[in-house]
Amino acid sequence: MEMLSGGDMLIRALADEGVETLFGYPGGAALHIYDAIFRQDKVKHILVRHEQAATHAADAYARATGEVGSVLVTSGPGATNAITGIATAFMDSIPMVVISGQVPSSKIGEDAFQETDMIGVSRPIVKHSFMVTNPADIPNIVKKAYYIARSGRPGPVVIDVPKDFTAPDAKFPYEYPKTVSMRSYNPVQKGHSGQIKKAVKALLAAKQPMIYIGGGAIHGRSPELITELVKLLNYPATSTLMGLGAYPSTDKQFLGMLGMHGTFEANTAMHRSDLIFCVGARFDDRVTNALDKFCPNATIVHIDIDPASISKTINADIPIVGPAESVLSEVIKLVKPATDSIDKTSLAAWWSDINEWREKHGIYTKNRFDTSTEMLKPQEVVQAVYKVTKGDAIVTTDVGQHQMFAAQYYLFDKPRKWITSGGLGTMGFGIPAAIGAQFADPEATVVCITGEGSVQMCIQELSTCTQYKLPIKIININNQALGMVKQWQDMNYEGRYSEILYEDSLPDFVKLAEAYGHVGIKVTKREELEQKLEECFAMKDRVVFMDIYVDPGEHVYPMQIPLQSVGDMLLSKTERTS
Ligand SMILES: Cc1ncc(C[n+]2csc(CCOP(=O)(O)OP(=O)(O)O)c2C)c(N)n1
Ligand SMILES: [Mg+2]
User: Fold this and answer.
1) CA distance 485 to 497
2) pLDDT tens for each residue of 385-401
3) Neighbouring-strand partners of residue 100
C-alpha cells in the first residue's frame, strides 16, 4: 500500500473525493498541508485575501454547482476569520468542508501561538466537526466529512488538524475508502407513503391552494419536479428568498417571492389560502410575520429532509420527512391520474382573486416606484441589469435594500443562478460569492449586485479577481448610506439617522477599481444607465465596477407590518393594506 504523510493524505483524499477547487489562505499550522498542495496538480488552490472570502467563495461554488465547497485555513486568526462564512453556509444549508490547521497536538491547551479552539468556536454553526487525533484516520475523516456535508440537510463540516499530524516524516498507509458507514447518522431516503397519500388528498381537495417553495427544493434537486407538479395542478406558487429560481419566475403561475418584502399577491394569497403545500422551506420569521396570525385558514403540508424543521415555528398538519426529490415523485404519481377531482370552479375563482391583487398592487404588472425624479431609482437599475444580461446571469448579492431589489426585480427562470445570504444576512458576501460562482462556471456572466456599505466589507477580493482573471461585474447601487438600516430608522425612529451616513468619506470607487487593474464606471443619470451597462457587459474578460448613484430616500416595498399577519403590508410610504 502507498505510504503518505498526513499532509499528503489530506490533499490526496480531497483529490480522490473529486475536489477540484479549494479556496484558502496559508499560515504556520497549515504549512505542511500547503507544501503538499505545491507538490501535486489535481486540487487547484485559490488564494483569497481574507479567510471570510474563502468560505463565501466555497459556499457560492456549492450553490452554483450543487457540489460541496472546500476551504483550507490556518489556525487561530485564520480559523476565526472563517467563522462568518461557516455561519452563513450553516444558516442556508450549504454543503461545505472547512479544513483548519491547528497547533501541534502536544501544545493544545497551552495557549500556544495562534491557538484557538476551532472545534469549540465553530460548534454551534457546523453540521458536524472532526478533530484529527491520529493521522492514519485522515482518509476516513475526509470521506465522512464530505458525506455528512452533502447528505440529508446539507451543511458545513469542520476538520481541525494539528500540525504534527501533517508532518512529512511520519508516513501511513493510504487508501481512500469507497463507502461510508455511520451507525448514528442515517438521513431519511424516502417519505412515509401514508403521509404522502394524505398530503395528495388535501392538495386535490383544496379550493384556495398555495405551493410554497424554499431553498430545500433546490438543495433537494427538485426544481423540475416542483414545476411539473405546479403545472399539473394549475395552482399558484410562491418562493422564499432562498427558493428563487426553483420555479420559473416569469411563469404566470408564479406570484413572486413571499415574506417581509414579498409581493402583495404572494403574501395575500398565502394569508387567504386554505392549503399550504410547502417544499423545503422552514417557515422562518422573514416569511411568517406574527406566528399567531399566520394563515388562519390553511391546512399545512410540510415536506422537509430535516425532522427538526417540521413544526418548529408553525405546526404542520401533514408533515412528511424525506428528500424533496423522492417525495415529489411520489406525489406526482398520485396526482397525475386524479386531477379531474380538482374543483375547477373554486380554482378559477381563486385565480381571479389573485389576478385582481396583481392588477391592484403587483410590482410586475406596473412599476410602483416613481421614475419622474431626477435621481435614478435602485429598482430601475436592477431592471436594466436584468434586461442587458437577458435574465441569464448568475447574480450574487450583499445584504440590504439592494439585495431585496435584486430579489424582486431580477427574475430567475432557472435554479442555482441566484446566490444570496438569506439566513445570516452577511454583508461582505457578494464579491467573494461572485468569485466562487465564476470558478463554478467560468463561461457564465456573473454579476454582484451590492451596496456601497457591503462592498467595502470584502473589497480586498478585487485583488483575487486580478490574480485569477475573473471577469465578474459589480453593480454598486450607491445610495450613500446603510440604506436598509436607514429605512428602519425612517420608519421606527422618526428619521434619527444613527451611524448610517458616510457620504463624505466614501472612496472613489472608479479609482479603487482601477487601482486593482479593473475598469470603473460611474453612472449618475437615467439617460446613460442602459448604455453604460451595455459597455460593462460587453467587456467579457474584464472586471467592471459600476458605481451607480441612486435616490438615497428610496424604501423597499412591499414590507410586512411587524407583529401582523403575512398579508398585512406597507405598499409605499403612504399606502398600507390594513
Ligand atoms: C456583517 C453585517 N453587519 C451588519 C449588518 C446589518 N445591516 C443589514 S443591511 C445593512 C446596510 C447595508 O448597506 P449597503 O450595503 O449600502 O446596502 P443598502 O441597504 O444601502 O442597499 C446593515 C448595516 C449585516 N447584515 N451584516
Ligand atoms: Mg447603501
Assistant:
1) 9
2) 999 999 999 999 999 99
3) 73, 160
Give the pLDDT score at 59: 99
Exposure string for 33-64, b = 16+ CB within 10 A, e = fewer: bbbbbeeeeebebbebbbbbbbbbbbbbbbbb
DSSP-derived 3-state class of residue 14: helix
Sign of the alpha-carbon torsion through 35, 38, 42, 48: positive
Ligand 1 pocket (Cβ < 6 Å) reads 398-402, 425-428, 451-454, 477, 479, 481-485
Q: 163 an active-site residue? A: yes
Q: Which three cell numbers stand for residue 110?
A: 497551552
The beta-carbon contacts of 221-228 under 8 Å, at least 24 apart in sequence, are 221/66, 221/324, 221/325, 222/246, 222/279, 222/280, 222/324, 222/325, 222/328, 223/247, 223/414, 223/415, 225/324, 225/325, 225/328, 225/329, 225/332, 226/279, 226/324, 226/328, 228/332
Q: Which of 399, 488, 500 to mutate to test the pocket of ligand 1 (most atoms within 8 A of CB)?
A: 399
The DSSP annotation for 295-363 comes to -TT-EEEEEES-GGGTTSSS--SEEEES-HHHHHHHHHHHHGGGGGGS-HHHHHHHHHHHHHHHHHH-T
Angle CA 313–314–316, to nearest 5:
130
Distances (CA, A) of 428 to 23, 54, 449, 552: 16, 12, 12, 21
Cα dihedral angle (218, 405, 52, 91), rounded to 10 degrees? -40
Catalytic pick among 9, 17, 23, 51: 51
Rounded Cα–Cα distance for residues 140 and 4 (Å) = 14
For residues 84 and 52, the answer to whether their CB atoms sit within 8 Å is yes
Atom of ligand 1 nearest to the CA of 428: 1
CB atoms < 10 A from the CB of 18, how many?
Answer: 11
Distance CA 281, CA 302 (A): 8
Q: Rounded to an integer, what is the distance from CA 370 to the centroid of its chain?
A: 30
pTM: 0.98
Of 113, 231, 359, 514, the catalytic one is 113
* Residues 208-260: tens digit of each pLDDT: 999 999 999 999 999 999 999 999 999 999 999 999 999 999 999 999 999 99
Catalytic (active site) residue 114: yes
Task: Measure the CA–CA gap between 545 and 448, rounded to whole angstroms.
Answer: 9
- Active-site annotation holds for 484: yes
**What is the C-alpha to C-alpha distance for residues 547 and 522, in angstroms, rounded to an integer?**
5
Type of residue numbered 137: D
How many residues does the structure list for the chain?
A: 578
In the residue annotation, 51 being an active-site residue is answered as: yes
The amino acid at residue 442 is: P
In terms of Cα–Cα distance, which of 268, 354, 296 is closest to 569? 268
Q: Let me know if 571 is exposed, middle or buried by CB neighbors in 10 A (0-12, 13-18, 19+).
A: middle
Place of cell 394563515: 295
